[in-house]
Design a protein that fits this description.
The chain is of the alpha+beta class. It is 20% helix and 34% strand. The protein starts with 21 loop residues before the first helix and ends with a helix.
């Protein structure tokens, strides 16, 4: 990894990169004051906000329940009465009823009022097998940095004198009731160039951080280090590993033992996915010719053999996807391995049992041609909570038995919009290099192919993240019901066809990702589904970078662009926020060949005067400590300097989600759809 460049003294907007710079914040406030009235004073905004808030806070949504070790169900829930949320529990028998009896474990709204903080719930890790004691992560305003506190679910209280770690981008796991494995900023500066911890220690109950025992140390040039703890079904620790992230996609697995750490002989592009019945299960993101395995394979290793000799692994192939398939998710129950497999972006769930050195498979009976996700897998038995969704069919939740493949529907949400007049089709565009790119079109059945349909196109195209069909509650009510067309593109950079789809768009090949998106855009226009005057696009984070590239490369194709929490300055990105952690995706501007590619598409550097840019809408959050708001601020400032009109919204709280609670989320969505209607439906 090359050295990160320093901000250019010739960049007039470099001050935007200061964490809490007064000039940057003043700019953001002034832009909010200029832009928000243009949207909120539109007579359509109030109705859009009311509809978005109704959907976001609906009490008949499906709870996101997880199976706890005591076989109860737990859920973090937000609604109009609890905009920050409550963590709660119920029994499976009660949950099956129309009105489950919930017991509140933790009320975030009450906690925020009592402590004067804008707490955002960032997840929980409980100590198996009983899951009574839990580590709760709390973020002030939605930042990635969290405060970690020990909580007793039996008393529904924070443990007096229990574990309490200060705010940090920390990685924390239970070792046992009185010991944690922690990677954090132990002393000021104990962070990588990407602003993440790289020193792993064990911390005993009652110890100050200064007394923790170091078990692994990476390097400041790494992305991060974190603990990985494998447990038997009874909760006993089977192995402690340190995961050393060399970059975002390459890592080393270090086995931690009494004599120190030993490197496990896995390819650096591989991911530990599960541990079941003594088998360590890994996906490969690169070929491993020495062992006969291929990119995309799911492989298992006997953990006892790994611990005996981590330098000489012998694996067993569990599953090899075909060219049209991709492993999207892996989980495990007490005795079975669960795999969500996509085939041409259509999901199914299969499970595997290991016995006598071989793996046998069972299909799970779930709706076909859907997006499937394992929400929770039980350690006590072989049950799973599974979510099923598609564009026009209301989402459902199932209780599946991974041993038999049988599944029972638990909950289904009511329809949020009238989908009777719509249909879904999967189409294919041809990219510049001849690669066929699939995309989904949700449209009125009666659509006239005359180029007049207001069309919203979205994509992500990065970090091996798969974009699959999900129930279009917001888009359905706020866009489809009004005659709009919604399009989701499965461009390269994502994981829709496994690691090869992602690897095809890395670093020097990054333009393939954007060429895929332009190919889909042109295909929509060629089919006369829409036209440049009626085509709008939106994307966030890496997708926000995609929007910036679309703006600067082909503004003639679009009349509306929503740019959410974006990367934008790709020459300076490695020194802004957590940017250095993404060098594995985009490349290093300190390396000449990679810098040349970055310069060719970096939106900030490519903004120029006299171009047919549409009036864009840029969004960010002051407390985004992942993709720093400097990217969005610099984009707006340069557009302003060049004389372009644009809209800008910076929410103070929210972090990378750009909204800290349901009210803020509804407001952001209403602002976006008001803008889209102004540009595409007027």
């Amino acid at each position: 990894m090359g050295a990160a460049p320093t901000p250019s003294p010739t960049d007039p907007f470099a001050y935007m990169e200061e964490a809490e710079g007064a000039r940057a914040l003043a700019f953001a406030r002034a832009e909010n004051a200029r832009s928000l009235p243009q949207l909120q004073n539109d007579p359509r905004y109030a109705g859009l906000y009311a509809d978005a808030l109704k959907i976001a806070t609906a009490k008949d949504r499906i709870p996101g329940v997880a199976i706890a070790g005591d076989r109860s169900l737990r859920d973090f829930w937000q609604d109009a009465d609890h905009v920050r949320g409550v963590w709660r529990t119920t029994s499976l028998a009660s949950y099956r009823t129309a009105a489950p009896g919930w017991k509140t474990l933790l009320d975030l709204d009450a906690l925020a009022r009592a402590e004067g903080k804008n707490w955002v719930f960032k997840g929980v890790e409980c100590l198996r097998p009983a899951d009574r004691y839990c580590l709760i992560s709390l973020s002030d305003g939605g930042k990635d940095a969290v405060e970690t506190r020990e909580f007793d679910t039996q008393t529904a209280r924070f443990v007096e004198g229990g574990f309490h770690l200060p705010e940090a981008k920390a990685n924390v796991s239970w070792l046992d009731r009185d010991t944690l494995a922690v990677a954090t900023e132990w002393t000021p500066g104990d962070l990588t160039e990407s602003s993440y911890p790289y020193i792993l220690k064990t911390l005993k109950r009652g110890q100050p951080l200064s007394a923790a025992h170091e078990v692994f140390r990476g390097r400041k040039t790494d992305v991060s280090a974190s603990p990985l703890i494998l447990r038997e079904a009874d909760g006993m620790v089977a192995a402690l590993f340190a995961q050393r992230s060399l970059d975002f996609f390459n890592s080393e697995l270090q086995l931690i033992g009494p004599q120190g750490s030993r490197k496990v002989d896995l390819p650096t592009k591989s991911t530990v996915q599960a541990y079941v019945d003594g088998q360590l299960v890994v996906t490969l993101e690169q070929d491993w010719p020495q062992k006969g395995f291929k990119e995309g394979d799911l492989v298992a290793f006997d953990l006892a053999a790994v611990k005996a000799d981590p330098g000489d692994l012998k694996g067993t192939l569990v599953l090899r996807p075909t060219a049209s398939q991709a492993i999207d998710q892996v989980a495990n129950t007490r005795h079975r391995l669960a795999v969500v497999l996509y085939d041409n972006v259509k999901g199914k769930l299969i499970t595997f049992r290991h016995a006598a050195g071989a793996w046998t498979r069972t299909a799970t009976d779930l709706p076909k041609d859907s997006t499937i996700g394992v929400a929770s897998a039980s350690d006590a038995d072989d049950r799973m909570i599974v979510n099923v969704t598609s564009f026009l069919t209301p989402s459902s939740q199932w209780l599946a038995d991974s041993a038999t493949g049988k599944a029972q529907r638990l909950k289904t949400i009511p329809a949020r919009f009238d989908a009777s007049k719509d249909t879904v089709e999967q189409l294919w565009a041809t990219s510049k290099d001849g690669t066929r790119i699939p995309y989904w079109v949700v449209r009125p059945k009666s659509l006239k192919l005359d180029g007049t349909a207001p069309t919203l196109l979205t994509a992500y195209g990065g970090f091996q993240v798969s974009e699959t069909p999900t129930y279009a509650a917001m888009a359905g009510k706020l866009w489809l019901e009004k005659g709009g067309v919604y399009v989701l593109a499965n461009i390269r950079g994502g994981g829709e066809f496994g690691p090869r789809w992602h690897n095809a768009g890395l670093k020097l090949n990054r333009m393939r990702v954007y060429e895929d998106f332009f190919a889909v855009s042109r295909d929509l226009i060629a089919r006369k589904i829409t036209s440049p005057r009626k085509l709008g696009i939106e994307g966030g984070s890496n997708g926000g970078l995609l929007m910036g590239v679309a703006l600067t490369k082909h503004p003639e194709l679009y009349n509306a662009i929503v740019i959410q929490v974006p990367l934008f300055d790709m020459i300076g990105y490695t020194h802004i926020g957590a940017g250095a952690s993404w060098i594995g995706e985009y490349g290093d501007p300190a390396i000449p060949a990679e810098r040349a590619v970055l310069e060719s598409y970096s939106p900030y550097q490519n903004l120029a005067a006299g171009k047919p840019y549409p009036k864009v809408f840029i969004e960010t959050s002051t407390k985004d400590d992942r993709v720093h708001p400097a990217h969005a601020r610099k984009a707006a400032a340069k557009l302003k300097a060049l004389g372009y009109d644009y809209l800008y919204y910076e929410n103070v709280d929210g972090g990378h989600a750009a909204s800290a609670n349901l009210n803020e989320r509804a407001m952001r969505i209403a602002l976006e759809y008001t803008y889209l209607e102004q540009r595409l439906m007027n």
